[in-house]
Design brief:
By secondary structure, the protein is mainly β. The longest helix is centred in the N-terminal third of the chain and has 7 residues, at 23-29. The chain has one helix at residues 23-29, and strands spanning 3-9, 13-18, 48-51, 56-59, 69-72, 104-107, 122-125. A five-stranded mixed sheet has the order 2-1-5-3-4, with helices on one face. The chain contains one helix and seven strands; from the N terminus they run E-E-H-E-E-E-E-E. Bound molecules: FE2/S2 (inorganic) cluster. FE2/S2 (inorganic) cluster (FES) is lined by residues 36-38, 40, 42-47, 59, 61.
């Protein structure tokens, strides 16, 4: 079976793939994980890459390798897009829960607390 060289930029990774393999498969073999939201069906367009030297955009999941290629992968097409955090802000989160926890303890009735209507243990909220 015929093989072709595929070079991925800016990673600089180069590998040999068999004719007819998709660029998505080639990228995976090179250890480059692309966004494939639609599972490689050609719908989401998240795996868009550029072919060199003309810069033509193709879907990596749909483009089959039929010659030696150099491919540029834009950051937005990578599954793990690298982002540099230039600024950060200090955020304060307010907590306003719908539910709160209250601890209750059962206290058996005593002679002094017992009334004719209270023969079962009573629950007292402690907080
Ligand atoms: S993975 Fe969705 S278009 Fe390629």
């Amino acid at each position: 079976m015929k093989h072709f060289q595929v070079t991925f930029k800016p990673d600089g990774k180069r590998l040999s793939v068999h004719a007819g393999a998709t660029l998505l498969e080639a990228a995976s073999q090179a250890g480059i994980i692309l966004n494939t939201v639609c599972g490689g069906k050609g719908i989401c367009k998240k795996c868009t890459v550029r072919l060199e030297p003309d810069g033509r955009k193709v879907l990596a999941c749909q483009h089959h390798v039929t010659s030696d290629l150099t491919v540029t992968i834009p950051p937005e097409s990578r599954f793990f897009e690298q982002k540099i955090l230039a600024r950060a802000s200090k955020a304060t989160l307010e907590s306003n829960p719908i539910f709160t926890q209250n601890i209750a303890q059962a206290i058996p009735p005593s002679q002094s607390w017992a009334s004719p209507s209270t023969s079962a243990p009573q629950l007292w909220l402690l907080n």
